[in-house]
Amino acid sequence: EYNPDQYLWEPEFTLAGRKYKRIDLELSNERNQTLKCSHYVPAIIPENTALPCVIYCHGNSGCRADANEAAVILLPSNITLFALDFAGSGLSGGEYVSLGWHEKQDLKSVVSFLRKNKEVSCIGLWGRSMGAVTSLLYGAEDPSIAGMVLDSAFSNLYELMLELVDVYKIRVPKFTVKMAVHYMRRVIQRRAKFDIMDLNVVQFAPKTFIPALFGHASSDVFIQSHHTDRIHQAYAGDKNLIKFDGDHNSARPQFYYDSVSIFFYNVLNPPQFPSACSNKLEKYYNRGAGTNESLLYEIINGLRAAGTDAGSSSAAAASFTNGAAQPP
């Protein structure tokens, strides 16, 4: 857990010479779990003016504090920012995350809420890692989304799990690797109520036409960049791909954020009204930087246990239960 007043932007704050406010609220998803949310908006909005909104979708072990840097990028352009703790993360209800499968329904609840807000015009999505997968899954079902930024998505969870065996040099005999992965599949189905085989994200790409900006760190060994390459190649909508130095959890370079800002400005077309925007944007502590993808790490630990004794259900189940499923 975390203290929102310590890790989020203040309820009232100044950024680039303008005043903004943080509106905290609670929503419920289709599983009747409480979602803790924050909406960052200008303190004063001209009458009869609706602003576009970007929903930030955090990674597996993240929370809405991960959106702190996104506020710096978007708010000066008259784009509001909505951040949430997915179920099983942060301060929201729920015990487990599902790497995008159930989070898609959380995102649906947020979009439905914003659609009813007369001060919100069009909606964009910005997702990182699990959040990028969530955005892709939801975007395939809602073509009205104006644009998506997709940072470090995996293309297929089953294939990713097989890759992690090699990346982390898990000492499982090759002939037992698939057996161990399928064992973990059963554990995850039982605990988190989703099937890893359903997270074949690349299959949704040819059905999605929302303009998208893809990003991936070239030295990411956790979710390797070829995952984004596959999704980008299959993606049906207008698209662009940016590779940059760094790894899975490293801070993103300024040129990437500049590209994100330009992308959202073009697809959301925010209204212009007098402002005191400055190029010298304030820097703010971002709690989300450097966090690990804990569910995937627990899958790794589970594979180790399953490889040691594929016939025993206790070791891997205990590892999975005591790890990623817990809020950070």
TrEMBL record:
Gene3D superfamilies for the chain: alpha/beta hydrolase
Pfam families associated with the record: Hydrolase_4
Stretches assigned to the Serine aminopeptidase S33 domain: 53-161
InterPro entries: AB_hydrolase_fold, DNA-binding_regulatory, Hydrolase_4
Coiled coil spans: none
PANTHER family recorded: ALPHA/BETA-HYDROLASE, ALPHA_BETA-HYDROLASES SUPERFAMILY PROTEIN
Protein's name according to its UniProt entry: Serine aminopeptidase S33 domain-containing protein
